[in-house]
Amino acid sequence: MTRRRLAVVGTALAVAAAASAPLWLGGYELGVLNLALVMGLLAISTNIVLGFGGLVTLGQGAFFGLGAYTAGLLSTYADVRGFAAVAIAVAVGTVAAGLVGLVVLRSQGLYFMMLTIAIAQLLYAVAFRWREVSGGPEGLVGVYFGQPGDLFDRPEWFYALTLVCLVVCTVIAWRLRHSPFGRSLIGTRENAGKMAALGFDVRGIQLRAFVAAGAIAALAGALFAYYNAFLDPSVFGIDMSALALIMVLLGGSGTIAGPIIGAVILTFLQSSLTSVSSAWLLILGIVYVLVVIVAPRGIVGLFTRGRS
Amino acid sequence: MTTDALTIRGLHKRFRSLRVITGLDLTVAQGERHVIFGPNGAGKTTLFNVISGQIRQEQGTIQLFGEPLDRVPVFRRARRGVVRTQQVSSVFRELTLRENLELALQAQTAHSTAFLPRRGEGTLSETVNEVLEEWSWGGRGDTVVGTLAYGEQRRVELATALLQKPRLLLLDEPMAGLTEQESDRIAETIAALDRSISVLLIEHHVSIALQIADRVSVMHQGTMVASGTPEQISDDELVREVYLGTSAGHEGRN
Prior knowledge:
The complex is a heterodimer of chains A (308) and B (254). With 308 residues, chain A is mainly α. Helix content of chain A is 77%, strand content 1%. Chain A contains 13 helices and two strands; from the N terminus they run ααααααβαααβαααα. In chain A, helix 8 (180-198) packs antiparallel against helix 9 (202-228). The longest helix of chain A has 27 residues, at 202-228. Chain A starts with a helix and ends in a 5-residue tail after the last helix. Chain B has a domain at 6-81 and 165-253: P-loop containing nucleotide triphosphate hydrolases (Rossmann fold), CATH 3.40.50.300. In chain B, 35% of the residues lie in helices and 24% in strands. Chain B has nine helices and ten strands. Chain B has helices at residues 44-52, 74-79, 97-106, 121-134, 150-163, 180-191, 206-212, 230-235, 237-247, and strands at 6-15, 18-28, 33-37, 59-64, 67-68, 82-85, 168-172, 198-202, 215-220, 223-228. In chain B, a hairpin with a 2-residue loop joins strand 1 (6-15) and strand 2. The radius of gyration of chain B is 19 Å and the shape is globular. The A-B interface holds A 175-176, 179-181, 183-184, 186-187, 190-191, 193-202, 204-205, 208, 306-307 and B 52, 54, 73-76, 78-79, 83-84, 90-95, 99, 102-104, 106-109, 111-118, 121, 144, 160, 164.
């Protein structure tokens, strides 16, 4: 089978399995899968910056958290829910990513990474301290996508909504990768100096990737808040960003399917391990080390020879 | 009177206490092939970095066809036609030959970073095919450039530079590290360039450079110590002293 056919068949099987999951998965497992798909969105977001753009970010939690808190605040204070609330959350994430990107993209490499951490930590501190609005460390309780009794109040329908979002964002990521823009983004990853010499506005290209990623992270954050019906400052935490990063590396950085594969594996691993042991972070560390040694190009990289 | 392609006046650049360029003047006429000689450390590559915008000078002005280039970022200078190749070949090593050429061509289109496919993407790949044939890479479009021989990588870099429709082409030792055969091939390409392109060339390969050159400048300790026709320069005593005298013996090995 050619690689292309393998990809088509694999995608078709995966979509069919995911779409029919409510029929054959138990309530608990469906919930975990739903969470995995939400994390898959965050991983796609991270992959656009890291995998396509070659910029190591540990701060996608900033936009994830902003999306979550926007949804949460709208739900608890203004009773704004549903698609309108999600749209507002995505808009907030998009604008924030634009502003943050203007600042952090002025630096490169390690400094860029440190700045992304700093921004996320700053927002974490605000959410933690600004008790009157954010609820402080106790967070916000009762964050719902729909009114009680609505269609999307039912887990299988909320799952379907998440799946649609994931499919749409995957198509966007794929389209982005294979557009002129995607080609230029890969170019900046491979040789930014050469791109500038060719006449490309490197920072402008990176900024647009950062904004697209911010929008998707905010969508993930909003769905995360609705999924839990609750949120606290940990959505901004560095462990959230790091988890997304490891998902991308595990699945295959710079690939389309990789981030989702990584998200599904790690989310199921996490849910089965936290119930039996408290050593989840240790396990995550071991997974990370194994990936680096055994499959430096991720799971997808094991099946594709040569290059992404 | 036609405007000169490049006019540099009173250029100074230093790195901390090290003065690399010290009051340099240089004029490149339109369509001229201008060769810069100079010993290692004379500041030649730094001069190219300043012209192409990678580093900024402390003092002095640079004009491209009469328009000032100061404070214009690298990518805008490239769009205005200042195109350079690097001393050590700069290509997308992990990408294929085709992708390297596509990026160079794409930079020339109006929607160079569009998210949605545009009309013209089809003609882009046709043009790439033509370029592949033209440079005798037919059938090798999917080769990853990093796996090509170094001489071929230099040609890839030169090809992408020419696709950028340069008005001023800066070539930094395009024959360094190449075999004699490969050098000749590059020299032929340079000699055959359209006269609408002005060329500034750093080259240690004296005999080849003198054949190409309309005009030669000799750089020493950050400034031009002599400038003239190839004949004048080969006869110049001072030039022999600072450069030709010390490197003529190495010529064959460069």
